[in-house]
Amino acid sequence: MGIVKSAIIGMAVILAASYFINRPEREIPKLPNTWWGRGPAKEEDKNIKPFKITFTKELVDDLKVRLNKTRTLQPALEDSQWTYGVDGAYLPIVIDYWLNKYDFKKREQFLNQYPQFTTNIQGLNIHFLHVKPKNHKGKRVLPLLIQHGWPGSVVEFYKILPLLTTPREEQDFVFEVIAPSLPGFGFSSSAVRPGLGSPQMAVVLKNLMLRLGFEQFYTQGGDWGAVILANMASLFPEHVLGLHSNMCIVLSPWNMLKMILYSYFPSLLLSAEDYHRMYPLSTRFLRNLEETGYFHIQSTKPDTVGVGLSDSPAGLAAYILEKFSTGTNPNNRFHDDGNLLKSFTFDQLLDNLMVYWTSNSITTSMRIYAETINKNYLKDELNTIPITVPSACAQFPHEISYQPPSLIKHRYKNLIRATKMPRGGHFAAMEQPQLLADDIWTSIAEMEILRKKEVKN
Ligand SMILES: *[C@@H]1O[C@H](CO)[C@@H](O)[C@H](O)[C@H]1NC(C)=O
């Protein structure tokens, strides 16, 4: 452990030093409305077209043939469960469900229960759910952009949507929710040229909201959704009324140094619970190494790994479901079934896989890593521009990493709330819709009180 710790300290000191030496005075950069479609930029088709998900007979027949032809998978080593990745002795149960029990017609209807649309933004056809409150008499309707990440999709939001669009007696507002598929994900088209990383996606999503007539709106996200909406809040504060995030992590050199200092003097700076969530650093660091191999692959060679995943539904299921297992609780890897059904149903998990399979988007979705984690991005430090809009963090105990408010505030300058949630993991909207919805309501109610005060002054 000594070596790991010294290596981390060394790295952090060098990074922090270089940061402070080169620290420029930041102006908010102006990102262009890049054309991501084929050919030269042209006039966008501004129409907003209704959209329905269809599982065509050809698609389903082909999928069934592939599922039925799955080769014999290797069972996990003795007593290893999911620690080497998905257990090949368990996956056939998922494949059998997909092939024989998943009701494609019914699930298609289920997925089409909310109004969906597409519209062209910067050459990309962007798909989104747009759910208005049914009965909002006497309530102000607030637009809320809610954003999924990888390897999720809009499917993550099917349970939380009614919780946000049904008025609550104690609040004088209700939400109108816009849930887009990220570019390259599901039914949104992908860029044809390099460069569409997280900050550029913030531009696309901001333009989508403007297209829909929302000059100002609230935002909520987890995973890449959280990263992109943090970028949106820092790049376009004039459009973002407030940010609610269930993945508030600030990875600046200064913060890395602080995390190491805290590890030496924890009791001075941290509560016992914060300590438990963050340390020992060596364990956290090794754990991150174990669970983030995919991150390195996707940041470098997404297209290569994409070939197998887009050609084999068993491969796609293994790759994505492993994330839903360990992302929900790291201890799930010690269970033969990855504890998948403890938090989700097969239908829910397969609905998400069907979004990737139907649209053949696994490869393009993984490119977000390569387009974000690269030299240009790190050089521009677009991920450290301060966020000045009111922000709230819902901190689920099994989230990939935890930072106390003192670290989050390094970037979130106007952090009004950080709530330690009682249970739940990385896919909070899908796993704990009620807890997440309650925290969104409470946080935005506080932001609305602030906003009313501001309007008065
Ligand atoms: C799977 O393949 C076998 C052998 O060809 C066939 O008998 C069976 O009907 C197939 N099952 C499905 C659900 O397509």
Automatic annotation (TrEMBL):
Residues 48-157 form the Epoxide hydrolase N-terminal domain. Its main location: endoplasmic reticulum. This is Epoxide hydrolase. Keywords: Aromatic hydrocarbons catabolism, Endoplasmic reticulum, Hydrolase, Membrane. Belongs to the peptidase S33 family. Its EC number is 3.3.2.9. The keyword Endoplasmic reticulum applies. It catalyses: cis-stilbene oxide + H2O = (1R,2R)-hydrobenzoin; 1-(4-methoxyphenyl)-N-methyl-N-[(3-methyloxetan-3-yl)methyl]methanamine + H2O = 2-{[(4-methoxybenzyl)(methyl)amino]methyl}-2-methylpropane-1,3-diol. GO terms for cellular component: endoplasmic reticulum membrane. Catalyzes juvenile hormone hydrolysis. The gene is LOC107269959. InterPro entries: AB_hydrolase_fold, Epox_hydrolase-like, Epoxide_hydro_N, Epoxide_hydrolase. It comes from the Eukaryota. It is found in: Endoplasmic reticulum membrane; Microsome membrane. It is a single-pass membrane protein. Pfam families: EHN. GO terms for molecular function: cis-stilbene-oxide hydrolase activity. The active site is at 223 (nucleophile), 369 (proton donor), 426 (proton acceptor). GO terms for biological process: epoxide metabolic process.
